[in-house]
């Protein structure tokens, strides 16, 4: 090969400039009894910047200034097995394989899983979140691009088609009772 470095660039470039292809997810809308597909880019998010004041609208207006895009795919199916769970695991693993995505929360359940990933920015701050919540009869994928923290992510829950993703809290370990001297 005349330019061996060209082959190295061809391999590394797709990983560093990784885009997420939603085409296979969009096809699930035909199988689902309910589906939501949300594609918000800079123009749509820019409209939210006019929201000001107290409450959720004001918070969303401020938050929209730091976001570049929100992609949501949410499906509800009549019965289990209407989508391939292994395909969703492979989709998640492909995203993680690029090296810029790190797992924050991983929940495994019988027949499903939830993963919340954060994309590391060069400055050490998160530059995106990716959530996959896969259950036998429901599937939600949320991809948020922009400078956002976990508290801001909670503010998006239930807005713009972003589903409420409930992650079970760890139960505190009971403290052993001190023995009384009698």
Count of DSSP H/I helices: 6
User: How many strand segments?
Assistant: 6
Which bin fits the share of residues in helices? 25-40%
Mean pLDDT: 74
Radius of gyration: 20 Å
- Largest sheet geometry: 6 strands, antiparallel
Low-confidence segments, given as residue ranges, are 1-17, 167-173
| Strand fraction | 25-35%
Q: Give helix and strand order, one letter per element, not per position.
A: HHEHHEHEEEEH
Topology:
Blueprint: H1 4-16, H2 23-26, E1 34-40, H3 42-48, H4 55-64, E2 67-76, H5 85-97, E3 101-109, E4 112-120, E5 126-135, E6 138-146, H6 150-156
Antiparallel strand pairs: 1-2, 2-6, 3-4, 4-5, 5-6
Notes on the protein architecture:
With 182 residues, this protein is α+β, with helices and mostly antiparallel strands. The protein has a domain at 20-40 and 66-156. The protein is built from six helices and six strands, in the order ααβααβαββββα. It has helices spanning 4-16, 23-26, 42-48, 55-64, 85-97, 150-156; strands spanning 34-40, 67-76, 101-109, 112-120, 126-135, 138-146. The chain has a six-stranded antiparallel sheet. A hairpin with a 5-residue loop joins β4 and β5 (126-135). The model is unreliable at 1-17 and 167-173 (pLDDT under 50).
Give a brief description.
With 182 residues, this protein is of the alpha+beta class. The protein has a domain at 20-40 and 66-156. The chain has helices spanning 4-16, 23-26, 42-48, 55-64, 85-97, 150-156, and strands at 34-40, 67-76, 101-109, 112-120, 126-135, 138-146.
